[in-house]
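Lecture 7, part B: from sequences to assemblies.

Below are the input chains for today's worked example.
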Amino acid sequence: MKKVIFAIIFILILTTSLVKNSTKEIEDKIFMVNENIRPLKSELGDVLLEYNYLSSPDKLTQYQSQYFEKELVKIDIMKIKKLTKKNNYIKLSDFIDKTIDE
Amino acid sequence: MNDNKNNVTLEEYENEFSYKKSKTNLNIEFNRIAFIFFIFLAISIIYSIQLLHLGSLKIKNETKALIAKKSYRADIMDRNGNYLVKTVSSIDIGINPVDVIDKKKLLINLKLIFPNKDYVKISRKLEKKKYFYLEKKISVDDYEKIMMLGDKSIKSEEKLTRIYPQKNLFSHIIGQIDDDNNGISGIEKSFDKELKEIKKPLKLTVDTDIQFLIREELIKFQPIFQNIGSTAILMDVNNGEILSMVSLPDFNLNKRKTISDLNYINRATKGVYELGSVFKTFTIAAGLDAGLIKPETKFLNLEKKLICGKNTITEYDNKILSDLTVEEILIKSGNIGSVKIGQMLEIDGLKSFLEKIGVLYKIDFDIEEVGQPIPFRWGKCKLATVSFGHGITTTPLQLAKAYGIITNGGLKINPTLIKNKKEKNKKRLIKKDTSKAINLILRKIVEEGTAKLANVNGYEVGGKTGTANKSIKGGYSKKKINTFSSIFPTSNPKFVLVVLMEETQISPDYIYEYRDGSEFKLKGSPRNTAAWTSVEVASKIIEKIGPILATKYIEN
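Predicted structure of the full complex, as structure tokens:
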């Protein structure tokens, strides 16, 4: 009986130390990943800022007048269509029910 | 006795042998220990010195971190995750002339990196022996090049700067900060503490694309109607989220100028105006909600003129009939009919309704630049004038809120600029039937009343116009405040759009295109009223932003 108890305690101590060791390893890995993410996050922020500036409506209209001859046109909501997928076929319908405004 | 002597000899021997030898040995041991102890002491002193040195370095780093923390400010984004404000670190390059070894060599090297600089000026500055900035907010490439020179006199300073990629677009909403990183206006001021503490960007309810399109329309019409300023607010009537809030004139936040000109105030929140007939909707809604009237209730033999004290109340249009239903009073914007309904409500009835929808007192909003509606004393004459929107002031933001409540089914909403603000269970302020009835009348105003130009196909626009003379000390000037408060779609309202234009003029050349299907065009504005100014602007705005709103924000 005593032997069994000692064996259990020994196994528990061994597994605890193994688990603790692996936890520490994982923690180290997490720390490393977090540290690697930090500069990437800051880089992403800078890139996003650049993208937001270059694709801002102000810039886009500027490019449009600079590089294209045609003016931007307003979209008529009555011409917008809606695609709905039902079972295996796609249904095309008006986005706005034309009867409402008539 | 001899034996005793022998014993003494033994004692002597013992003394000589052990005492002397052991004494010498003891001395050698003590010196060794002392030597080792001394070595350890020396090492520990060196180590302590090193520790102290490291300690002082840590303090320096902490100060640096503290400075960085002091100038830290969270970014601000729009509802779609686009940056409106971002804190970026920038590097300024300075030169300390005292450390310059070879002036000629330095100038040649600098000219290779910055060819467009005035080197006569720089040379003069170098002679003055005073530290100066060569270039501020330098690019990474130039920074690397300049550091490769390895010149001792070149110093780099890292700074945190606030960048506003949308320039003027959100100037009144975002506001400014001072040199000490403290917000002095807009969101920067009211969320100063949060912005210094939170790690994630602050998300606003505004949409950059919609804000741009609305601002573009307001700017386009400024030279046409020669107004000194204008404002537009687009708000979701169901949750109070503001998708756009433009006030013109605005300013570029990147320039960090001190704004002292009063014309630059945030007209949407700070501007307190007498808005005229847009208030008639409130009088009629109050009457309907109190059960005193129905849309079809008829008022017969309405006078053309009412005199109350020193005031004479007349119809703006003499063609308005003497017999009108409640619905017709609002559609034709009848002053006398509105006064009659106001009188039926009495002071308490109208006052409590206006309090409920939040137009009487200062609004609690996300930015501090909020105007205070001018307080007044209620009386019989005041009741009469307030009924048709005169002698009562409020801000365009409060007008948008009130129209939102009346048209969303009567539920309480609070205008907000902050996304994901948790709203408690919405309180019912007015009856659902009142809201439905008002929506139908507002639609008719656009279909057959004063706002026909706003009848943009496909959006079921409804709304009420308001033309008021600008109040000045002791009376009214001839200058106009033209307002159009619209909602769409009226069958199930989603958005309220308020357009206000200050001090508009008649445009002799502008061509109006009628929206009644006749394709009729009219050159020049017949009158300086909201119907011919702000309604036209609102219709153009709805036409442009409508497809975005319909496809992005309305679930079909």
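Note for the exam: Chain A has three helices and two strands. Keep this in mind when comparing with the next example.
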